[in-house]
Design brief:
two-stranded antiparallel sheet; alpha+beta; 3-stranded antiparallel sheet
């Protein structure tokens, strides 16, 4: 477990919009999610703001929305960040394949 390094993120919930806003930059490799970025968190999950999953969701959403990197790279970063933040293999891969499946159905890629 020593290779796991959960990185908390600074966010503010926007309950009326059912969204969250980034209040401090989130950096991962070559991506920086800026202050003020708004996301829906972990779309359609029971705990959309799960502390050990939210960083992955925010980085992934930012990549997909801004197209700063290819979507597949965003999906890979999502999986990597989940692992870094201590999400177990079963849950991590289940979430990753849900993201990939959505991309295949929605974007035909």
């Amino acid at each position: 477990m020593s290779d796991k390094k959960f990185v908390p993120v600074d966010i503010r919930t926007l309950p009326k919009e059912n969204r969250i806003m980034v209040t401090a930059p989130i950096e991962y490799k070559d991506v920086v999610v800026p202050i003020g970025y708004i996301s829906d968190g972990l779309t359609k999950l029971i705990n959309k703001y799960a502390p050990n999953c939210i960083r992955a969701a925010l980085v992934h959403d930012y990549i997909c929305e801004t197209k700063c990197l290819p979507r597949k790279t965003g999906d890979r970063y999502f999986l990597e960040i989940l692992k870094l933040d201590g999400v177990g293999a079963f849950k991590r891969y289940r979430m990753y394949y849900a993201v990939r499946g959505y991309a295949i159905i929605t974007f035909k890629k």
